[in-house]
Amino acid sequence: MAKHVYDFTEGNRNLKDLLGGKGANLAEMTNLGLPVPPGFTITSEACRHYLAAGAVPDGLDQEVAGHLDALEKKMGRKLGQADDPLLVSVRSGAKFSMPGMMETVLNIGLNDESVHGLAKQAGGNERFAWDSYRRLIQMFGKTVLDIDGDLFERALDELKGRRQDTDLDAGELQGLVKTYKGIVREQTGKDFPADPLEQMRLAVMAVFDSWNAPRAILYRRQERIPADLGTAVNIMAMVFGNYGDDSGTGVAFTRDPGSGRQGIYGDYLQNAQGEDVVAGIRNTIPLEELERIDKHSYDELLGIMQTLETHYKDLCDIEFTIERGKLWMLQTRVGKRTAGAAFRIATQLVDQGLITLDDAVTRVTGDQLAQLMFPRFDAGAEKKKIAKGMNASPGAAVGKAVFSSERAVELTEQGEDVILVRRETNPDDLSGMIAAKGILTSRGGKTSHAAVVARGMGKTCVCGAEELEVNTRDGSFTAPDGVVVSEGDVISIDGTTGEVFLGEVPVVPSAVVEYFEGAEPGDELVKAVDRIMRHADAARRLGVRANADTPDDAARARRFGAQGIGLCRTEHMFLGERRQLVEDLVLASTDEERQAALDALEPLQKADFVRIFQSMEGDPVTIRLIDPPLHEFLPDIVDLSVKVATSPDVTEKDRKLLAAVKRLHEQNPMLGLRGVRLGLVIPGLFAMQVRAIAQAAKEVPGARPEIMIPLVAAVQELESVREEAAKILAEVGVEALIGTMIEVPRAALTAGQIAEAAEFFSFGTNDLTQMAWGFSRDDVESSFFHRYLDLGIFGVSPFETLDREGVGRLIKIAVEEGRAVRPDLRLGICGEHGGDPDSVHFCHEVGLDYVSCSPFRIPVARLEAGRAALSDTDSDTR
Ligand code: ADP
Ligand code: MG
Ligand code: MG
């Protein structure tokens, strides 16, 4: 029988798949000899079984009972024992960190009897015992019994009045327990379960179920975490930070997750338990002040933080509790950080000798690099600063202020940019946080919910702007000098400095982009980026090219590090004033008329190619012959019909054009007369383009054209185009590779034949994805992809990240069969996927020669190609 339960002493950090991140790291800390309360972990496998079968796996209950027994022996007391109870927490924890998205229940084991035992255990501290009990009913009621948490909050608020929770005395808390139990009875028709074992069992199942809570699903989709992993459950002995002022609880980072600087960095709250710190119920104090309160624990904590950094060789974040002067470690993980900090920390760790430059490249991601390429506020612009909070997550965001998650979503759907303003956020605000351009809160520190979640998403966030009086009910906030901002007023927030401005502040490009554009690396961050990019470039095997149609794009791409153009589309060369000539081409009734139109187009195209070859200075340029259906260059059928039917000055040409447009009209233009089919049906069209390319290449010394034929499905199509093109190249006296796109499934499946006629393949994965799935991209993304994502049919749109199983399989077949026929076949990809991190790793794995992507994604592709080469087995791009 499979083992479903692991004691903390049995696990280690490498077992995240099974034990979740929290469980694996609790085990790791236990085995490092750090003070971790004892406990055990139920595997995510058991959760998957439970979610699929609706019941826990056979034997799980006995296994848990065995481990509980051992825990009770170790602690010398039994779960919920009336005179001296053991209490436990039941905590979620999946492979990937999902902060606050799932459930945790503390103080399991309390009931009307053991509450007295707990007080006795605590030396007669009745207040503490009743506080713990009311917390249990509140958490259990909300998460296990599905009772609206506001009911408990409201009862607590009524009791507190203007006081803080710590001002409530034992009698009042006892009364609150009674009120809470009344709420449970009223809402569920049953009494709060007094049996400690039943409490634990129900809590375990509730944690399993919380994997599928709406906010957890939303978070996973946003963070691209697979939907089928399930969560592990950790059961651990409780330690108490709510004994009194000699106790407390806190969170900390081993370095600043914003800048990467080493130092003391965290929040602490006296006489508090668990979530209190991040929930912002009272204002926390900076961790430094713990030195004054409890020097012994403080020193021990700093020592442990040092141990963890050296052990994990990375920034860690931790949760800890001090129980009457004794420090306990409750959680650690390699901490989330801002994009800038990721680069800085990686190079700092290299300088400290903790990791190598190879490691450093794998520690940063293309997504983080992309974030650093966002614009920032113009330092020279005039701004009206109205407040300053904490710089929780960097970036520059401008938008209309909104005060609820719902409004944030609504206005965003109407195309508005919004800034979500809250006193503090909670997990229910997730949808609004995703929708908003930025997040502003008036309470909570850099470890508050808003800050942690925003950093994880790479969203601009300013938190704890305490000068702001936020009134969510009226939908407004007041700044110190009396400025009132109401819903819809535009504000700008700077997540790098923490500043809040009234109105729209103009933005300027990022320093990292300026560096890619050729500026010398100036500040520490850009130097770190420079170092890592150089190392990634040296390590990568994949070439990186650009999708660029114009000389400007080509030049920028080259500055960004492109080693050529992998896709130069030619359709724009038929637009603008040249539409006229396309119309002439379509309307031509004789060979002469058609040739005249083509002859007129040729010099124009040649001039375009000359400029592109010049800007690429001898790097290869893959030019795709015309691809879209011709009607795209003609007037719209409805407009033209109306004109012909109603306008007084209709010309003969209009009538002819309308007839032509009608003749060319197709039900499924994407599957109609386009690509190579055009070249075969319209005599001279491809020949004209090839001649323009050849003439241009002849004029620009060192030009390296590659001629690419789109939409080929059968080798015969390619052969006949190739023959004509080769003849023209020979006539002009220019050499060029001739190859094809692989974007129709049949081409992939007959790649062995096609390779006989092609010197290179370029995978057009946009079309290949459309045709492999039978999806029309422009239609499906808005009509039903949401539903498909909800159903988990795919975790992320196959147009964003290459579908390895289906489309990827077609690519693999084409690579193998193509190379078998022609070992020096050049292989590349030119769909949007060429700039997507996970897809770049796939291209590396299947042995392509290069990826091609839009100019702005080139640095991302370079970095990911380096990461793919350096982390052979680990293709995790998160
Ligand atoms: P999350 O994943 O949302 O952070 P956790 O499982 O970490 O949830 O638990 C929530 C809070 O409860 C944390 O602050 C944690 O430190 C605290 N906590 C969990 N287990 C215990 C325990 N056994 N004793 C004391 N505090 C605990
Ligand atoms: Mg936690
Ligand atoms: Mg295509």
Radius of gyration: 32 Å
- Number of discrete helical segments: 36
Low-confidence stretches: 873-878
Q: Which percent band covers the strand fraction?
A: 15-25%
Brief overview:
This protein is α/β, with parallel strands linked by helices and 878 residues long. The chain is 45% helix and 17% strand.
Characterization of the model:
- This protein has 878 residues and is of the alpha/beta class.
- It is 45% helix and 17% strand.
- The chain is built from 36 helices and 31 strands.
- An 8-stranded mixed sheet has the order 12-22-21-14-15-16-17-13.
- Strand 21 (490-494) and strand 22 (499-502) form a beta hairpin.
- It is elongated.
What is the element layout, followed by pairings?
Layout: E1 5-7, H1 16-31, E2 39-42, H2 44-53, H3 60-75, E3 88-94, E4 104-108, H4 114-121, H5 126-143, H6 149-160, H7 170-188, H8 196-210, H9 214-223, E5 231-237, E6 248-255, E7 262-270, H10 276-279, E8 285-286, H11 290-293, H12 295-312, E9 316-323, E10 326-334, H13 339-351, H14 357-363, H15 366-372, E11 376-377, E12 384-388, E13 390-393, E14 396-402, H16 405-413, E15 418-422, H17 430-435, E16 438-441, H18 449-457, E17 460-463, E18 469-471, E19 476-478, E20 484-486, E21 490-494, E22 499-502, E23 507-508, H19 511-516, H20 524-539, E24 543-547, H21 551-559, E25 565-569, H22 579-587, H23 591-616, E26 620-624, H24 637-646, H25 652-664, H26 676-681, H27 685-699, E27 704-709, H28 715-732, E28 737-742, H29 745-749, H30 751-755, E29 760-763, H31 765-773, H32 777-783, H33 785-790, H34 807-821, E30 826-829, H35 837-845, E31 850-853, H36 858-870
Helix pairs in contact: 4-5, 5-7, 6-7, 13-14, 13-20, 14-20, 14-36, 15-36, 20-36, 21-23, 22-23, 23-27, 24-25, 27-28, 35-36
Bound molecules: adenosine-5'-diphosphate and magnesium ion (2 copies).
Residues 710, 743, 764, 766-767 line the site of one magnesium ion (MG).
